[in-house]
Predict the 3D structure of the following.
Amino acid sequence: MAFDQSLRRSADSFRLGRGEKLSAIERIVVLVIIAITIAADVIGFFTTPGVNPAALLVSVACTAAFALYLWNTLIATCALGVVFATSFLVGTESQVLTAAAVAAGLVMRLGWTSLILSYTGAFLIAAAVVANGDADAEVNVGLFLVFATVAGAVGFALRLAFARGSRLERELAERAEQERQAVLAERRWIAGELHDSIAHHLTVVALHVQMLEDPETSTDSQEAIRVAARKAMTDLRFVIELADDGPQTAVQTGDLAAAIDEAQGEFEAAGHSVDRQGDPRDERIPRAVEIVLARIVRESATNILKYAGPGEVQIHLDVDDEIALRSPLPTTPRRELSSSRTGLGRMAERVMGASGEFSAGEVEGSWVVSARLPVV
């Protein structure tokens, strides 16, 4: 199998696809040469006595055929063949064959494998016919072959140069696209970090602002607002430092125990009782899993503070199974709190990115968020 692939790659290396179109500079050069050649033929017709008008027409047609290479290589090559066949009627086959030798460069520059091989075979046959066609006139076939070889080598060199330039342009375009995607990924990451941290603290602030009107809870609410604002500023500074790629003064810990403790404090400050089960400091929990679970707890806490109705909030951690947060569904509409509506999607993305399972939905009158992650 490997041998077959090697043979296939070797064969592909000798297969020429359809060449690129001529560049603007090449087009200008070809047109200038065509114009000069036709002008020289016309001037020679009027200044040289005894020139056959039919020979002039064949010469002009041969030169004009080169213009077709600016449009279609196959049609131009066929037109050149027709002119060569016509040249035998007026005795200018040697001149047309010289033009065909020059055209070998354009065929090599623009043609594909089958056309190049066909043109080479036809040119050799034409050279042999011209050499044996007129016994009285000596024709140096080798000169035609040298012209064709040099022209073909120049055309092939130009083909390789332009192909390399096109390849470099594609590589630069791909690299620019990769850099653009990297910038977009970094922006999405920064947006996600802001959502996971700042949005949580702002939710706490918005919740306790609604509770300031109650004299019994206003003091605790003021303290909760101060703590949430301070944490929001710390997290914001951390994200800004990461975005600036500067020295980091804070390290993102992803401490599961600290996340659960913080969530419990916020639930209790909001009037919920909390039922905790499981040890978040269990040494069997891998570090990567702990970071993901801490984010799940943080985001779930944000949603619970926004939408949960009165009642008990359950935080159950089973190291061998899952972590689950259960909160009561709201019984009465709560004053609207802003939402980016991306929390569940980001939680699912984090869990599944760590080869885990995630679910969130209503179960027996409660809202349950469940995450299962491998611990081995």
